[in-house]
Design a protein that fits this description.
The structure holds three protein chains of three kinds. By secondary structure, chain A is an alpha/beta fold. Chain A contains seven helices and nine strands, in the order βββαββαααβαβββαα. In chain A, strand 6 (144-148), helix 5 and strand 7 (176-181) form a beta-alpha-beta unit. Chain C has a three-stranded antiparallel beta sheet with strand order 1-3-2. Classes of the chains: A alpha/beta, B mainly alpha, C mainly alpha.
Amino acid sequence: MIDFRNVSKRFGQVIALDNISIDFSQGSITGLFGPNGAGKSTIMKLIAGINYPDQGEVRVDGEFPRAKRQSIAYLPEIDHLYPWWTLKQAANFISTFYQDWDELRYKDLIPFLNLEEQMIMGKISKGQRAKCKLLLVLARKAPYLLLDEPFSGIDLLTREEIADALLRGYREGEQAIIISTHEIDEIESLVDKVAFIDQGRIQLYGDAEQLRMERNKSLVEIMKEVFRYGNQQI
Amino acid sequence: METSKSKMFKSLYLKDLREVRTEIIVVAAVAIILISWAYLRTDGLARGIIIAPMAFALGLAGFLPIITSFRLLGREWSNSTIYMMMSLPVSGSMILGSKLAVLLTEYLAGTLIVLLSGGIALLTSFPDIWQEFIGNPYYIQLAAAVYLVSITGIFFIFCNSFLSQVAGRLFKKASGFISALVFLGVFITAGKIMPETDVLLTQSQLLVSCSMQDIGVILTKGAIDLAFAALLFIAAVIIWERRIEL
Amino acid sequence: MDFDNSQPIYMQIIDEYKKSIIRNELKKGDKIPSQREYAQMVRVNPNTVQRAYREMESMNMVETLRGQGTFIIAGEQMRELMVKDMAGKLMKHFISEMRSLGYEDMVTLDMLKHEFESLEDE
């Protein structure tokens, strides 16, 4: 379980997270929804152990995030692969470090995502690179999978391929997936938990189906409602 | 998938080794071209001039790795691959250690190519002097000691380079300026802490007395450099592991 | 399959199966996709599919046999109930929509009669 207790984080004058408490447990796909700059990426980075909270605690299975890096597969929003790497080189490199690397799954996902091992990271399209990034995290059987804006700037067809690969690789009950995006409609039906985040706060958190039942609205509509209300408060 | 620390280190090392290939080739080309040019254009005693291109190539072989030390780490940030590096399940000492090994490789490869090509040229030109050098264990030990100390010295510079860079990265703004400040600051501080050995070293460098004591002094200087380098390395690792944020 | 995202998806999955049974596309004893397959097919969270399947099991619509898969167990009797249920829902929906348009119930009834007659003429 990933546990946030009263976590605050600021960058200079900007408050990225303002006293957030939330937990993510295995067996669910959580969507972190909110506009750009809402604090979604900061939540991801805190879990990945590349940011530290100013106040409060972040724990992964009760330990400091950096001690649990072996259990976390992190897909940052930014392109973090060496531009000269071929997909195969990237896979070889990454597989050296993680016990949970699954070569069979890796081989299985390459054709599924319409990729080739010889593709060079710096020379392929943004969509292909996004798929390579996804493949490299999905090829691991990591208990925690963090996907930061996996759909941004990617065409519809590729988005569908990404969603399909995600479900193909998903292991129910054993894995917690956290997806941050400002484009909810892509994954509306993929998530079962949602957290709407704005201005560093969790404005609404709940079970996706429960929210639909209570409000007779889609998550996109709920988000608009929540943020309008949230912004009025200020 | 089986993982092991040695495989991880090897992966990191080979990944970065790619970055220094060009530099090694440049040093080798410069050394071989200049030395053979000097060798072919002269003859007799005038061939002593070979020392000049050798010294130049040696300088290059020592200087380029220092530039590389900044590029090797800085590029991780400019390519955003720092996200990959920082989230790997390995300690900062392994990541920085592998980079240190790459820089050392560059230094050793460069200097050895120069010394070897220059050495061969000198050997064929002045077999007598060569005989005397080979025949005197003191000279060999002295040369070995000087080379060893050059390695510890460059180690110190590499570690200083790493420390100043990670220290600079603690600041969002003016991180380059802060790096430069730290880099110079460490040099000045270290210079003040170890003045006595430096004096001894200057004396010994004159190589007048030709005693075994000189070698001891040189090696002491090397050991002190190494100790300082280790401190800087540890400081850099601590900052890397506990303070760097992306 | 496209879902109406403003309604719980698990209910829509159940409705989809009910419709298939009503249309006789699925009969007693037919095997349906596993939860995992179905989730991938329709691109839906596996927990949501699980919830739908569990619900269908408790309604005695389907049965999951260990190691064999999930099968339709709804017979003719249940199918008739589903038809009635579905018809009832359609009627309720129709009536409430007509009311919201401002029609009196009696007027609606007359309009229905007319509509039936004109359909018979065709």
